[in-house]
Amino acid sequence: MLALLAEDAAAQHAPDGGVAAAELPPAQPGGHASAQVLYLEVVLNRTRLPQLVRFIRRDGRMFADSRDLRGMGFTLPGHELSAEIALDRLPGVQTRYDLANQRIDIDAPLSQLTLPTTRLNTRDGRAAPITATAPGLLLNYDLYASHDKSNSGLTATGELRAFGIGPGVFSTSAVTRGYRSDDDGWRGQTVRLQSNWELSFPAAALTLTVGDTFSGFLDWTRPVRLGGVQIGRNFGLQPYRVTTPMPAFLGEVAVPSVVDLYVNGVRQYRGELPVGPFQLSTVPGISGVGNAHLVITDAFGRTRNLDFPFYSTRQLLAKGLSDWSLSAGTVRQDYGVRSFSYASEPVFSGNLRHGISDNLTLESHAEAGGGLRNAGLGGVWLIGRAGVFSASHARSRLDREHGSQTTLGYAWNNGHFNVSADSQRTSGDYRDIASLYGPRAPEISERALAGFTTAWLGNVGINYVRLRQDDTDAASTVGPATARYAGVSWTRNFARDWSVNLSYNRNLDDHNDRSLYLSIAVSLGHDHRLDTSWQRNNGRDSTVIDLTRPVPGDGGAGWRVQMHTGDGGDGGLAEVGWLGAHGRVGLGLARLGGYGHGYAQASGGLVWMGGHGFASRRIDDAFAVITTDGIGGVPVQLENRPIGHTDADGVLLVAPLNAWQHNKLSIDPMSLPAAMRIADTELIATPSDRAGARVRFAITPIRAALVVLHDRAGKPLPLNTRVRVEGSAADVIVGYDGETYIEDLGTHNRLRVQTPSGTCVARFDYPETVNAIPRIGPLPCGDETPR
Asked: Where in the numbering of this chain does the PapC-like C-terminal domain appear (predicted)?
């Protein structure tokens, strides 16, 4: 927290027309006969108070009850709770009584006041109200086929989701592969990938998963794929909640002011400050050293400028915030090869992170199973503006073997320079759950990075990596058990939308293992891009030229042409792609070293919801089905961007939407016929994760008309005359020139009109075919007679 104090100028100088306390005459004894009780509007330090306050005016002086003054914010040390106090006896207080407006202006120094702290730019971390999930099914699919002279292949991947049928979302995915060769014909297999049921509790930021999942993980632990149960914190359910510490600035102002906050030269907040202390929070949107610039402009137009440096990092949790997960199950094996391959031994895993302060977050981890016991502690410290330091230590025991793992890390950057280094080392026979079903954790894993950025030179970086694997696992890996690599890179963006990237990497243990890479990227305008690269790796050269027009994200066609040559052979490829409302397709031809093949791919989604089927692009997040009560052709917008029109049944699939967040959906009423009653033109949808919400725009066709009513003399009925359609419970009002807008009309209509001279009746039939609101009349309003 950083603090500032605005200058109390208003308390030092009386405003125009003000009367300072020293200028008021002293109290005269015996003057009670001239006392006058007043209930006045109060303006305290240029801020209008909402309630009237009782004052007593006696001999030109103002008195008030101490309880009323305390209610206004005065501290009044040493005064009784019910004492009558003269305002001119309060140190530094100045008053001005406005007789004409029955108002009193009071200027008081902040030392005399105790006011609540105004918190600005705070974020409500509570979950947004969730739009009800409608029952439905979703199938995402990806198809890929290839063919050459003697072989063919087909791969189909699908994900099926069911939602709204009960609580939570059930999903399962699988892949089917088929192969054909001239010798063996077709063969193939289908493998289940992942199946689970997920239930979320947004208010508590908790998610329960039953089925295939991952054990929770920290930076210094290794996750494993499990089949079982997991429950844990999920801050993604509350996307408007800030989990990292936010720089906050404290201060106070003596008069109403306006504050502007700039972070690294970019304005992030502007707001009004009432009198008193305030706290301004901000989300800098940067990582590393930053500078906040505060500009306070008071009611007199004077400004104060204050600068505050800070350091921001996403590695920390805010003070008092916890993040945790618990997992139990059996380890999934042979993923992608076998559908139901699980280990027999149950395992357990738990993680906890807690923000001790805004500068310190503690971490802990424990796991067990198959005779293994593993536990560790760690932490992340923010060392002022000097960077972030992290450390952890874990110990394990398997049967009679013991081992430990220690990690250290440091990171610092200020936007122009950055340095980071981390080290992970194991000793003894260290084991975790992942090592029971795969390779052990490396004995040594170290990394160091450093770089700087300037406008004229670009970005320059150097890196170093060291990895040492246990000898017992080295036989199953490619390369030596120990490897050390170092590299340097340079990237610069030039004018006219082109950039250069140059990098060099070398194995420090094998002088023949080195690579040099150079690439140049040029934007050609009209969404065209040219990329060229040259690479020399272990004495082998290759050159690639790539010309592309990417497929637009909003839909349309794109293409790519690539040519490459080098020691690995000459070749190239050509492909085209198209993205539409119902999916994405692509075709391509490729050739390398005399070997050529063709391929095709398609992806999309199929949705069944609310009795309607939809074909769409692949949907990985939430979505909504818009209904307009059977009215087709209604244009729909998502965040003020056209997204489509409802079909003949008045429905439209809108995807993707951001789960757990506000998504603004709207329709354009100007495109609808005038004879429509529209309840809402804009609605907010907040769908749950990976599910569909039903959003209804209530649109009702109405029989309405503009009826012109005249009296018995043929003159328009007077303005504000009341008219009621027979059978209706509500009156309508006659407008200018006798024009009356009436809804909910029938085929035959009878109007009862209450005029100043009595009641009259008008009759008319509604037109059989009409495309707009008809104008009917003038109709005479005559005597009421039986039908």
From this structure: 707-768
